[in-house]
Amino acid sequence: MSEPFDIQAVIDRLASLEELDGIQGAAEYAAVTSLKDFRVPSAYVLLLQERADDAQVKPGGRQRAIVTFGVVLAVRNYGDQRGERTLQELRPILGAVRNRLMGWTPEVPGARPVQWSRGDVLDYDRSTLLWAEVYSTQHFIGGAP
Prior knowledge:
- The chain is of the alpha+beta class.
- 21% of the residues lie in helices and 36% in strands.
- The protein has a five-stranded mixed sheet with strand order 1-2-3-5-4.
């Protein structure tokens, strides 16, 4: 199996969060052209990177792939001009997402528990805030174990 990491597993993991009105993937994220068009509160799960680690390829061509994925959160508060209330909207959602993902081990060969890497503001327009969380895990690609 040399397929890329299946990001649908992350979407499925977040699907039960009551704090979110929707969880979608990269295609839906790319289709949004303006901050005002984001459905809120929502999450978009994106496969950011897969890379080899420094370990040698195992017999049969098996290799560890380090996976980095992002969760972009969209929140909104129309009564906010400086971002304070919008951040208050974000905090419980962010906590729920982190609690759901950190330490979870995806059901793929060679997976390790998901680790949080960082979170950053992507964009803000006085009412809508996009926040990106970055997580990592691993899986194996190539020949049979």
